[in-house]
Amino acid sequence: MTHKRVLVLLFGGRSSEHSISCATARGVLGALDRDRYDVIPVGITRDGSFVLERDDPAAFALDPDALPEVRDDGSRVRWPDSVRSRELTVERDGVVTSLGEVDVVFPILHGLWGEDGTIQGLLELAGIPYVGSGVLGSALGMDKHYTKTVLQAAGIQVAPWVTVTREEWERGQDAVADRVRTLGSPLFVKPARAGSSVGVTKITSAEGLGDALEVAFAEDGKALVESAVVGREVEIGVLGARPGEAPRASVAGEIVVSTRGFYDFEAKYLGAPGVDLVCPADLTDDQLAEMQALAVRAFQAIDAGGLSRVDFFLTDDGWVINEVNTMPGFTPISMFPKVWQESGFSYPELIDELIDLALQRR
User: Fold this and answer.
1) What is the pTM of this model?
2) pLDDT below 50 — which residues of the chain?
């Protein structure tokens, strides 16, 4: 009989993307093959407690009127105290119970304290294999300023930007506004380290900068102000390399915005109208091949691993990379699974592939 791998599914977390992580958990829990995996769902509450959750996908449905979240039930999951063991335990009412030896962790965490290298550092210290990028790739992919800096150094075109810290803004608003005016208009103001379009504002001039920065600073003490890029919004998935092979890029999907200002949180996750996802995107063979090559270059430039979604604009002057997401939205209707389904991986097969990549990584 084939050994069933013990898989810890980690979700929730302290970031503003807590509920999206829970919604992702619903999709993955529903797709995991219980003949292949013994699943241990571990939720992280909004204040950072690790709790043993129910293995029940329905508990994490994405309802606009009641977003899912990890609630503190009093249990506490404990990580191994050395690399000599991979045994997870849970304490409840003073009683400690073994959860077994863990083979691999799937951290479907979005945002700070999960997607940014912090949880990856914990798993490295514990010596437990995990899905996705390592500490460096996760940290670089989470911080949009450093993503752009690294991609630019690698010769990959990115949107012009100005990075502003809260301290800089409070110290000299006029000086910051002068820097921002060089970008033209319209502009996007976003937190440097957040995702799911949380904290993002579109402004038409520097006059709206102050209010937009306050929205961004509510998520992170560092914000990016970017020139709006005129072009088609096209995204592509990358899977990490198997031993002796190169990373793989999927077909592309396009975000077509009609009546909304941009592809915001409500459109991404709550079904708000005004945005359509077209997959596969209508590209020529040459356009797709160039996009795939650039996506793999970006993946390698930030030292990503396992998976990433690379977001592009197709402009009159060619491809411009917007972001590299090292733990993209992973609900069954999210773009990353969609582009891989069109490339030959079903949703369950994609999960299996990511787990296999984690176990093969050195």
Assistant:
1) 0.91
2) 1
Decide: 291 and 298 in contact? Cβ < 8 Å. Answer: no
Contact between residue 340 and residue 348 where contact means Cβ atoms under 8 Å apart: no
Residue 1: per-residue pLDDT: 43
SS3 (DSSP) at 327: coil
- Name the CATH architecture for the domain at 161-227: 2-Layer Sandwich (3.30)
**Angle at alpha carbon of residue 5, lines to 48 and 362, rounded to 5°:** 80
Q: Which residues contact 237 (CB under 8 A, 6 or more apart)?
A: 249, 250, 307, 308, 309, 310, 328, 335, 336, 339, 340, 343
Cα separation, 257 vs 274, whole angstroms? 6
In eight-state DSSP terms, residue 43 is E
> What is the three-class DSSP state of 172?
coil
Fold of 5-130: Rossmann fold (3.40.50)
Q: Does domain 140-157+230-345 correspond to CATH entry 3.30.470.20?
A: yes
pLDDT at 258: 74
